[in-house]
Model the fold of this input.
Amino acid sequence: MRYRIRTRIERPDRALIERVGRTHVGVTGTHAGPRQVADPAIKPLRSEWRICGPAFTVRPEYSDDLLLGEIAAKYAQPGDVIVVDAAGRLDRACWGMGMSTGAKGAGCAGVVIDGACMNGALLIHERPQLPIFARGLVAGASGAERAGWINEPVICGGVIVRPGDIVLADADGVIFIPPELADEILAPSEGFQARAPADRAAGKSYYELRGSEAKLRALGNVEWFE
Done:
């Protein structure tokens, strides 16, 4: 088996990343579609954590490997989100405090793990306060140090993620946005946010603004008793 370690990736324009970061995760995820939204089991270790940045992907051959996560911080750039494909494994951690300290030192925006993390008490309450999204916490790792892939396409929470895809995540969940689809995804999300103040000022109920009753009546297969 031959593995690839790519130390350089193409990252989206900073203005585009900031544009994504201004949107609501739930609304943007709705418009991105289910293929771009990760399994909802992947959640922040602290509910207030939020991240947005380009994906720096890590895929160990063995899902309990630690070596690739350790080396990732050397090549990640400030603002990157390290995305670890650990195949959803929960009985052994693939990430912990040492790697988080390294990623924090590299200026990473956060980490998304399709697997388990250890040292949760330290990471959540003490140091290094780097936003981490994972399937859960576990008290231990195998200590395995094997090869794998860095900055190749990975699968995280059921989503195919390429290096440089934009990661947007908060307590609602994790979205992966291919830069070439960003305009298509962001336009309706931004439109919703732009309309919201006027909608609130109008004093109408949500169902009125949405035209919900008219839509329901138009279905034609509902009996109404008034």
